[in-house]
Amino acid sequence: MTQHLADALPTSTGTQPGWWREAVIYQVYPRSFADSNGDGMGDLEGIRSRLPYLKELGVDAVWLSPFYASPQADAGYDVADYRAIDPMFGTLHDADAVIREAHALDLRIIVDLVPNHCSDQHEWFKQALREGPGTPLRERFHFRPGRGAGGEEPPNDWESIFGGPAWTRVPDGEWYLHLFAPEQPDFNWEHPAVQDEFRSILRFWLDLGADGFRIDVAHGLVKAPGLPDLGRDEQLKLLGNQVLPFFDQDGVHEIYRSWRLVLDEYAGDRIGVAEAWTPSADRTAMYLRPDELHQAFNFHYLNTDWDAEALRGAIDDSLDSMRPVGAPTTWVLSNHDVVRHRTRFGSLERARAAALLMLALPGSAYVYQGEELGLPEVTDLPDEVRQDPSFFKANGQDGLRDGCRVPIPWSGEEAPYGFGTGGSWLPQPAEWAGLSVAAQTGDPASTLELYRAALRIRRAHPALGAGDGVEWLPAPEGVLAFRRGDFVCTANTTDVPVRLPAPGTALLSSTDLAEPDLLPADSTVWWQG
Ligand code: GLC
Predict the structure, then answer these.
(1) Does ligand 1 have an atom closer than 6 angstroms to the CB of 189?
(2) Mutate to test the pocket of ligand 1, among 183, 337, 405 (most ligand atoms within 8 A of CB)
(3) Fewest C-beta atoms under 10 Å: which of 66, 306, 338, 429?
(4) What CATH number is given to the structural domain containing 160?
(5) Residue 53: φ, ψ to 5°
(6) Number of domains in the chain
(7) Looking at ligand 1, which residue's alpha carbon is closest to its atom 6?
């Protein structure tokens, strides 16, 4: 394979902070980003062709949601072959081209790794089914006899996160565990072959030049010994924080310590990012001890309303919990599993204000594709086009996930708005013509230009980016004000303008500042002062 630029980039030794301590990482959801072959599905060649857009936007790295060979029972989070690309997305050659071209633009690439479960079409699982009870391949998964007369009841009372029992019975009478869809059997992480296989998969992508991994359901790999009953009847939520016998078990940390050794074998500061839903910020910090992973998603922040007091609490808790382990705090407002924050917060003004607030905080930030365009959730998708497996379960998620996955608009007056030359796998609303990249480019009032300006300032301003604290300033109720060196950020979360003496010269504001000492409703302002 080609020599990758990442190999030549500096590593985080001594006092030099690692790039990931302050990176803005852009999440690409491959099926909905850009479609190069007109089949209505985004693909790797589409992503490659749009890398200059991401460079110009000003992000540091790109996280790609799964593009591996998959029957797509859960939009690619059901992986049949971890070393192959699904033909819908392209070829391994295309993946290599994305990584190489990204590196040439000085953008890093983080790939999504799904270690908790695979697809029921993975070779190991198919072989386990063929070979029957008691055979070695079954030990790589959680196969058990059922309970009750004739084993007709599931082995325990665990519920799947998408709704219904977490167990499915196979024709020979055994049941297998799947915390998600029945098409996503959970691996048995006690098994050495599973551990070896994933270290080898890490190396495969590191050799190809990947700068890191976003680790799906990082808290789920180890299950409590004996798979004990939960003893209560409750539907689990994505991004939940319950104490459970299949999440956040202490044994997961040994896995991440062994992965860290692999990451550290490679030059170029390769990282692991945990998608870990744990009962507390301190439990999340355990994944980020110096010999484990580098970052974790901050779901506490994502789940916080547009409310000054709540935000300040979440910001302080997040910073406090990371300080003891020396890991950077991360910030995120949207991703492919939640309602887009413009819709969650109720207005574009709030979404823009929330973005400036997030980008002013110390640490690393995640931007989900389309949020830089101010896209809302699509709430009126017809049932027949929906693909989210949770939709098909009566007890599934209350927030269905297709509405945040609608392909993004690039240009033009009609759907698919430059997404591709064919259609788009989910229909785009008519109003999206005005939200396209082309429509917003060059318009200083647009959300796209707001993100571009914010990322430019964030990169240039010495007080922004990495850090582990903020200095709170006195502010009226409903307003947040904090200082970082000679930089001040104020955010008015109320729906009325608030008087506050200008703390300096305004650098950027999410809503026009008519008077410097009058903060508009639902706005954030960056100040030099
Ligand atoms: C993660 C992913 C989500 C997926 C689930 C199962 O939460 O973000 O999209 O459905 O894992 O892999």
Answers:
(1) no
(2) 337
(3) 429
(4) 3.90.400.10
(5) -60, -40
(6) 2
(7) 77
Instruction: For residue 5, name the pLDDT band (cuts at 50, 70, 90).
Output: very low
Judge if 93 and 141 occupy the same domain: no
Mean pLDDT over each residue of the chain, to the nearest integer: 94
377 lines ligand 1 (CB under 6 A): no
Check if 265 is active-site: yes
End-to-end CA distance of the chain: 49
Q: Residues 6 or more apart from 216 whose CB is under 8 A from it?
A: 77, 112, 113, 114, 115, 116, 275
Q: Which of 31, 180, 277 to mutate to test the pocket of ligand 1 (most atoms within 8 A of CB)?
A: 180
335 Cα nearest atom in ligand 1: 8
pLDDT digits 0-9 by tens, 315-357 = 999 999 999 999 999 999 999 999 999 999 999 999 999 999 9
- Residue 127, domain extent: 123-177
- Cα 214 to ligand 1 centroid, rounded to whole Å: 11
Distance 276 CA to ligand 1 centre (A): 11
- The CATH number of residue 241's host domain is 3.20.20.80
Position 6 pLDDT exceeds 50: no
Strands (E) located in 419-521: 471-472, 479-484, 487-492, 498-499, 505-509, 518-519
Active site residue 398: no
Q: What is the pLDDT of residue 393?
A: 67
Burial classification of residue 438, based on how many CB atoms lie within 10 Å of its CB (0-12 exposed, 13-18 middle, 19 or more buried): middle
216 CA to centre of ligand 1 in angstroms: 6
114 close to ligand 1 (CB < 6 Angstrom)? yes
SS3 232: coil
